[in-house]
Design goal:
Elements: H1 7-23, H2 27-33, E1 49-54, H3 70-86, E2 91-97, H4 113-116, H5 127-137, E3 141-146, E4 150-152, H6 165-168, E5 173-176, E6 179-182, H7 187-203, E7 208-211, H8 228-234, H9 241-263, E8 268-271, H10 295-299, H11 303-308, E9 314-315, H12 330-341, E10 347-352, H13 371-379, E11 385-390, H14 393-398, H15 403-411
Parallel strand pairs: 1-2, 1-11, 2-3, 3-7, 7-8, 8-9, 9-10, 10-11
Antiparallel strand pairs: 4-6, 5-6
Helix pairs in contact: 1-2, 1-3, 2-15, 3-5, 7-9, 13-15
């Protein structure tokens, strides 16, 4: 069943959120004051992505804790949607498969633990169905965010729901870095995870399918991802194990794109990878960076090829560094990605580290209320950049130093339509 609120209560919530911002001199009031063309908005973009991630893994953004009632969970979700509208955003990217489980009634995987505290327990409502309906009622696009291979943030199979596929097929599972993953090298795993994810596409008019940066796991010093048996069985046609692993992920991306097109041709497919494909010191085609992780070499995700070949509709690299950061300078990575996207069919959006703004553990640049706003100003110099997505919803609501309010004041004076 869908959990619905009355139209009157939805309007009241949105008006309250907007009124609070205006009364407090917040982002919407400041942005609207400059919408007459006298301020920075005189060159405002009318079509751009303005998105926010809503992470559910470990209850990062939503629900705020496990075990809330269905009404409480729904109210919190609607609050995030209304907050997106209040900030003149147009897209919400909701994580609906955080650890090989589901935030919709799935015949393939159990209900997510983040809802009730017990994996497999019915929460009494349909979060994804409600999110799609309520987002569309507000003029927001809803992107369904899936993690393909992560099973659990621990290594104990017995802690998973009895119905969990990982318990039925333990030979699909690799323990690594204190977590459990499905093995991307097994064709039966690749087929299963696609079937599980495409179930949501078949059931709901989601505007996009969204993957983040987790393919093969991030490297852990002194540990080996044990896929030797799979490599021995399936890797014979490749020069190296690394090439075989990259091909496994390439196949996932291409097959998922084809599956989405077949089920729902208007639904897009986007990926948000770690922001460095390869450093120039590793590959002359790489970026002027010295990042410790390179997606091509460490996550076996050839993100540049996905863009150049047009396998995906959009890419949203996580450029979670400040302007001038030595190892990975935002001001150098944006033009690199713009050049990769140039001439391709893949749109470029930029992932922004809103969570760092005002965090005292971050470099001094992130204590400056204008840092994020400067990101958008810089990106406008590159026409391939079609918008920005902010990590994440909890940080947008808190807005510790007012960085998001400044972005809205400087750049989001009026709502924008999405690129089509």
């Amino acid at each position: 069943m869908l959990h619905r609120k009355s139209r009157l209560s939805r309007r009241a919530f949105a008006v309250t959120a907007l009124s609070a911002l205006v009364a407090g001199g917040g982002a919407v009031a400041s942005g609207a004051a400059m919408a007459d063309g006298r301020g920075p908005n005189r060159r405002r973009v009318t079509r751009e992505m303005r998105g926010v991630w809503v992470a559910t893994v470990a209850n990062r953004d939503w629900p705020s804790k496990q075990g809330l009632t269905a009404d409480e969970q729904c109210a919190e979700l609607i609050g995030h949607l209304d907050n997106a509208v209040a900030h003149h955003l147009n897209t919400v990217i909701l994580q609906v498969r955080p650890t090989a489980d589901a935030l919709w009634p799935s015949p393939y995987e159990p209900w997510s633990q983040v809802l009730t505290g017990t994996q497999g327990k019915d929460p009494g409502w349909d979060p994804l169905g409600t999110a799609v309906e309520e987002a569309h009622a507000r003029g927001l696009d809803l992107h369904a965010w899936f993690n393909p291979y992560r099973i659990a943030n621990h290594t104990d199979l017995s802690r998973l729901a009895e119905s969990h596929p990982a318990r039925r097929y333990p030979d699909w599972v690799v323990a690594y870095g204190g977590k459990l993953y499905y093995n991307p090298g097994l064709p039966e795993v690749r087929a299963f995870v696609q079937e599980a994810m495409l179930d949501a596409v078949a059931k709901y008019p989601v505007d996009a399918v969204h993957f983040d940066d987790y393919f093969y796991p991030y490297p852990v010093a002194g540990q080996t991802f044990d896929d030797t048996d799979a490599y021995d069985r399936y890797g014979g046609g490749f020069a190296t194990r690394d090439d075989w692993r990259r091909d496994n992920i390439d196949q996932l991306v291409q097959e998922m794109a084809a599956g989405i097109r077949k089920l729902r041709p208007t639904t897009q497919f986007g990926i948000s990878p770690f922001g460095v494909w390869r450093n120039a010191a590793t590959d002359p085609l790489g970026s002027d960076s010295r990042a410790g992780v390179q997606t091509y070499d460490d996550l076996y995700a050839d993100t540049r090829t996905w863009v150049r070949e047009g396998w995906i509709d959009y890419i949203c690299p996580q450029l979670y560094w400040n302007i001038g950061f030595e190892a990975a300078d935002y001001a150098k990575l944006v033009p690199w990605w713009a050049e990769v996207a140039r001439g391709s069919r893949t749109r470029l959006y930029i992932g922004e580290a809103l969570y760092k703004a005002g965090d005292p553990a971050q470099p001094a640049a992130w204590q400056d209320v204008d840092e994020l706003s400067r990101h958008l100003t810089l990106a406008k110099d590159h026409p391939q950049t079609c918008g920005h997505v902010y990590f994440a919803a909890k940080d947008m609501a808190a807005d510790r130093v007012g960085a998001m309010a400044q972005v809205v004041a400087d750049h989001y004076g009026q709502p924008a339509k999405l690129p089509r």
